[in-house]
């Protein structure tokens, strides 16, 4: 099938690459010339395991192309996926300007039937807005061309995006037109060979499902983070509690990890947007308001522990910070807890030496201008002469590090662990002062 993907970011690039892997002919369009140039020169603008290989293979086979040329991209695909960003507006609502601009571009250049697929995370009612935007442009052109609008929210996880896209748990398709559903089913059949995972529903339900999924996951994280604070007060160990409840199949083990709060490009903005949708409809979403405020506070939990240990004034102190990306296996720094932690430490006069296995360039870019942070290229360099090690992201390489080396390099053997990577008893036996999240004896 011929597919155009508008917006070649995390979602657009992965979707385009996976669709081409199944034999489809895909054109990925972006307005960002730098991104398209990198891709056309054989590079990959983001870090995502397995992506480079799949892109390279399909580009070589002539099934995957990248362009900034809007008319030819619109002409190419019968299916026009919109995967552009939907950042939060000042009031927390999803900013639809990029989605609607993409829709208008499709309307401006289409000459035959198109199925326009909203893949971006968009509030209920956006499909109708996309339809209106396209109709308006077609009317301006004085032409009458049939098109369908479909909602197909994306559920991939950064860091495992290719795997998620190739083997989806479910594919949600919101539509009110049979012809479009038929095409969507044909496109996705190769991704669900063992059983049908296509959930067809009405447009508003499909749009809502994506927000409900992210809001639920964010709620689990904030729930555990809040309980971890109480666990510290009452002498319980949140890791034991996590296992104790996660083994109940009604609860399950996923997204129950206490830590430094959720970040990334989705949870924070999607929770905000859903709260906003509630408000627009005369409803306060009280659970989600609490989820958000618990999370804001949790991003500072390590700083609170550092201040409790060293005092408010951190002038003259230096900290080794391991992990900058908002989670492992990505270089995405959007809303990363590390940003809040670094700023809070610097604001108290501390110096920070930071290391991340893949997010260094992105971190340098987003933290540009901050005084007192140095980006280094190894774990060891970050440690040299620091007062303590602060672990922020649970990269695999941090899970069993060289503890003797850490001890020798730090001024004193102190670790603040925002991801509960280590066993408090073991750390004690090694002579570390170990502070973690909601842990008995730490
Ligand atoms: N990143 C994720 O893990 C994830 C997962 C599921 C859903 N989503 C949703 O998918 C959407 C995209 O997210 P992302 O992380 O891929 O964003 P991104 O910022 O990585 O990519 C968006 C791309 O769209 C491009 N763009 C903007 N306007 C355009 C236009 N008019 N024409 C062509 N290109 C245009 C931008 O230049 C950018 O490259 C968002 O709504 C997000 O909430 C993201």
Written account of the structure:
This protein is an alpha/beta fold. It folds into 2 domains: 2-201, Rossmann fold; 215-435, NAD(P)-binding Rossmann-like Domain (Rossmann fold). It has 18 helices and 14 strands. The strands form 3 sheets. The chain has a 6-stranded parallel sheet, with helices on both faces. Strands 11-10-9-12-13-14 form a 6-stranded parallel sheet. Bound molecules: nicotinamide-adenine-dinucleotide. Nicotinamide-adenine-dinucleotide binds at residues 6-12, 29-32, 35, 83-86, 98, 101-102, 120-121, 154, 156, 158, 265-266.
Note the main attributes of this structure.
6-stranded parallel β-sheet; oxidoreductase; UDP-glucose 6-dehydrogenase; 45% helix; binds nicotinamide-adenine-dinucleotide; single chain; Rossmann fold; 442 residues; 14 strands
Topology:
Blueprint: E1 2-6, H1 10-21, E2 25-29, H2 33-40, H3 51-60, E3 64-67, H4 70-76, E4 79-82, H5 97-109, E5 114-118, H6 126-141, E6 147-151, H7 161-166, E7 171-174, H8 178-188, E8 198-201, H9 203-234, H10 238-246, H11 267-280, H12 286-298, H13 301-310, E9 318-322, H14 337-347, E10 351-355, H15 360-366, E11 373-375, H16 379-383, E12 388-391, H17 403-409, E13 414-417, H18 424-429, E14 433-435
Parallel strand pairs: 1-2, 1-4, 2-3, 4-5, 5-6, 7-8, 9-10, 9-12, 10-11, 12-13, 13-14
Helix pairs in contact: 1-3, 4-5, 5-6, 9-11, 9-12, 11-12
Bound molecules: nicotinamide-adenine-dinucleotide.
Nicotinamide-adenine-dinucleotide binds at residues 6-12, 29-32, 35, 83-86, 98, 101-102, 120-121, 154, 156, 158, 265-266.
Binding site for NAD(+): 30, 35, 86, 121, 158, 269, 334
Family: Belongs to the UDP-glucose/GDP-mannose dehydrogenase family.
Protein name: UDP-glucose 6-dehydrogenase
């Amino acid at each position: 099938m011929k597919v155009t993907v508008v917006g070649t970011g995390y979602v657009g690039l992965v979707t385009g690459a996976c669709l081409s892997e199944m034999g489809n002919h895909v054109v990925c369009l972006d307005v960002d010339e730098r991104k398209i140039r990198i891709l056309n020169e054989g590079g990959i603008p983001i870090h995502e395991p397995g992506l480079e290989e799949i892109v390279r293979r399909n580009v070589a086979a002539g099934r995957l192309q990248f362009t900034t040329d809007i008319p030819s991209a619109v002409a190419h695909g019968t299916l026009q996926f919109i995967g552009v960003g939907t950042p939060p507006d000042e009031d927390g609502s999803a900013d639809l300007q990029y989605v609607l601009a993409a829709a208008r571009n499709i309307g401006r250049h289409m000459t035959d039937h198109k199925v326009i697929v909203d893949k971006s995370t968009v509030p209920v009612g956006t499909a109708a807005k996309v339809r209106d935007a396209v109709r308006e442009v077609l009317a301006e052109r004085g032409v009458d061309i049939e098109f369908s609008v479909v909602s197909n929210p994306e559920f991939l996880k950064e860091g495992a995006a290719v795997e998620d896209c190739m083997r989806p748990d479910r594919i949600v398709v919101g539509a009110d037109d049979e012809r479009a559903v038929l095409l969507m089913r044909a496109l996705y059949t190769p991704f669900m060979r063992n059983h049908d995972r296509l959930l067809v529903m009405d447009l508003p339900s499909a749009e809502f499902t994506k927000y409900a999924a992210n809001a639920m996951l964010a709620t689990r994280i904030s729930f555990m983070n809040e309980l971890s604070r109480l666990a510290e007060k009452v002498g319980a160990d949140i890791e034991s509690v996590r296992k104790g409840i996660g083994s109940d199949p009604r609860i399950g083990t996923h997204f129950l990890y206490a830590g430094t709060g959720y970040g990334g490009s989705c949870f924070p903005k999607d929770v905000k947007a859903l709260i906003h949708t509630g408000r627009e409809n005369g409803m306060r979403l009280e659970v989600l308001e609490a989820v958000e405020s618990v999370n804001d506070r949790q991003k500072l939990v390590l700083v609170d522990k550092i201040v409790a240990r060293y005092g408010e004034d951190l002038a003259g102190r230096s900290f080794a910070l391991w992990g900058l990306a908002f989670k492992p296996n990505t270089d995405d720094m959007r809303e990363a807890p590390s940003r809040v932690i670094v700023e809070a430490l610097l604001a108290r006069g501390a110096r920070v030496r930071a290391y991340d296995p893949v997010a260094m360039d992105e971190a340098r870019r987003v933290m540009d201008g901050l005084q007192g942070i140095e980006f280094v290229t190894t774990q060891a360099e970050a440690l040299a002469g620091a007062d303590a090690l602060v672990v922020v992201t649970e990269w695999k390489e941090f899970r069993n590090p060289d503890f003797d080396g850490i001890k020798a390099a730090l001024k004193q053997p102190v670790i603040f662990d925002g991801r509960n990577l280590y066993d408090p008893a073991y750390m004690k036996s090694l002579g570390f002062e170990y502070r973690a999240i909601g842990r008995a004896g730490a």
